[in-house]
Amino acid sequence: MNYSLKQIPERPSKPRDVGFTMAMDKGLSNREVEDFIDGSGEYVDIVKLGWATSYVTNNLKDKLAIYKDAGIPVYFGGTLFEAFVIRDQFDDYRKLLDKYDLPFAEVSDGSIELPHDIKCEYIRKLSEQVTVLSEVGSKDEDKIIPPYQWISLMQAELDAGAWKVIGESREAGNVGLFRSSGEVRSGLVQEILTKIPFEKIIWEAPQKSQQVYFIKLIGANVNLGNIAPNEVIPLETIRLGLRGDTFHHFLNKL
Amino acid sequence: MNYSLKQIPERPSKPRDVGFTMAMDKGLSNREVEDFIDGSGEYVDIVKLGWATSYVTNNLKDKLAIYKDAGIPVYFGGTLFEAFVIRDQFDDYRKLLDKYDLPFAEVSDGSIELPHDIKCEYIRKLSEQVTVLSEVGSKDEDKIIPPYQWISLMQAELDAGAWKVIGESREAGNVGLFRSSGEVRSGLVQEILTKIPFEKIIWEAPQKSQQVYFIKLIGANVNLGNIAPNEVIPLETIRLGLRGDTFHHFLNKL
Amino acid sequence: MNYSLKQIPERPSKPRDVGFTMAMDKGLSNREVEDFIDGSGEYVDIVKLGWATSYVTNNLKDKLAIYKDAGIPVYFGGTLFEAFVIRDQFDDYRKLLDKYDLPFAEVSDGSIELPHDIKCEYIRKLSEQVTVLSEVGSKDEDKIIPPYQWISLMQAELDAGAWKVIGESREAGNVGLFRSSGEVRSGLVQEILTKIPFEKIIWEAPQKSQQVYFIKLIGANVNLGNIAPNEVIPLETIRLGLRGDTFHHFLNKL
């Protein structure tokens, strides 16, 4: 930190298991990646190359090398996994992870119908190869999953070998955990937390109000994802009670 | 492409006449232009320097050179044309295009009242000097043009020498083709397409939902414009059926 | 300017006392700061390091040096002042300003309750050390201050030594001067202007519609703040009547 302030919540240093920030790169150029790492890298635990953007970026190999040199693991968005699966190209996907030497992969079913035992089978298989993040929740805003089912899906995916489970929201933060307005499904979140430890969950929370909600509910060290590169520093200040939204939240509680 | 996936819509390579992406630069610095080209240049067919931003950017000559070296043509937004016309400085505008050696120009009447035969006269004159894009639709949200009139305006402007016509939306995507909410005037669009070939139209569609609408209606190779630099890669994935929004659209249809 | 247009409002050159643009840096990397200055520096009069982002940016010293070399003064957001005050660390705050050799400071009470005579006392003390900007208005959207009170608060803070007063809006532009929708409290603004000279006020106006409102009401040379780095060039065109929104506003009035 650049100067000293009292009563600031403690944050673990990297590699972090909690208080984890997953940022989304949806097509940065190599120099923009360098800028991002230079400005915010200390607060970024993992980077997702959003959905299937890795298919079209013209700089994939170099981009992965830049993140690797900075000690920031990278994974392909779950939509890419689904794009391979729906084309019956799962073996190609496994080879792809090897080719690019990726340490993480996401298993999701946001855009495809996947019987849950099959999804868990994918998690099991990929776990032998990489660390798996699995995502629960549909990108279809009409597909409402009741809380008890979120819990059993999450538990089964952790049992199948997922390192952490991700609560879906899309880039814009308007499905899955959230209403179409972006408002948090608060009852859902609280019920999930009665059964699944908060350390095992990454909440996708691209909007500030969503980040504030989770930090107030769970604390500075909640795991949050889908953070835009230029929102990583702002998020860090919210975690520390140094932005208006959480200014009073941690005072006299530390 | 960085790896191989089946059932991906075919995209023509540059120079493209369809499947054209027009991006908007509203004041990038030179190095930001380099970053933009490095990350997304392959998917950018033409760049508009938004409205009259070229008047104030401190780096115009160098900026134009950087785009030129990358083989990406640049043109000044239509509002600049109108700013010259309303000041009775059209000859200065023609000299300006020559001075900066610009290959394209836009003729529009989004902010000024221009009798349509006069507008077509400007198109005719400028066509002798550069390739002309002409824009139909007002920036004034109270000025509703009925579909049959959009069609006759577009046809007359093509007849006068416009290479393609642009459907107006503003940077924010909330007038012209769109309701103030950003929703597409779908009946208008479909009626236009019964008379004007889709290759001759560039739809300004800055919002994701608008891009998805046009890609689903017309296909991967619709011409789209007013795309923010950091949305060019995401748009390309939508064209290819590799983002949730169009994930199923092209499957089993190719 | 890159070319000549008639009937363009005159803008003073730097250092400006009016027509002042305050931009907000909420965590740019050093190279992004260089890009920002290269592209837009000519139109930036002062930069605020948003709220307490300066606590976490890993490049503070270098960042300040880059802005200084470009002749652009920098100050810490008012929330940081408040974070020191509420922790009873005001002396540390004064030392911090010295340590980083900052020429400006902001005194605000957007997130804390501060009796107004105490706030003015802080303004007086800091005025001995730096140039003070003081901010009026709460970040709490339920805290409505009536116009006569805005005026007396502003006047007292100017009397206490503030160089200019800032009308609060947050980064998103939805409290203080604005309704939660972002709409300007127009009666409030106009009543303030009957008593406080416009040169003494910086209106935080991050949204385009808010910038347009103030420019139409007060003129090209109104002081505006909380401008995102990539909106500085667009704002300059609005000031000059070169964007659709103010296209007709200055014509035939100059």
From TrEMBL, chains A, B, C:
<dbReference type="Pfam" id="PF02679">
    <property type="entry name" value="ComA"/>
</dbReference>
<protein>
    <submittedName>
        <fullName>Phosphosulfolactate synthase</fullName>
    </submittedName>
</protein>
<dbReference type="InterPro" id="IPR013785">
    <property type="entry name" value="Aldolase_TIM"/>
</dbReference>
<dbReference type="InterPro" id="IPR036112">
    <property type="entry name" value="ComA_synth_sf"/>
</dbReference>
<dbReference type="InterPro" id="IPR003830">
    <property type="entry name" value="ComA_synth"/>
</dbReference>
<comment type="similarity">
    <text>Belongs to the phosphosulfolactate synthase family.</text>
</comment>
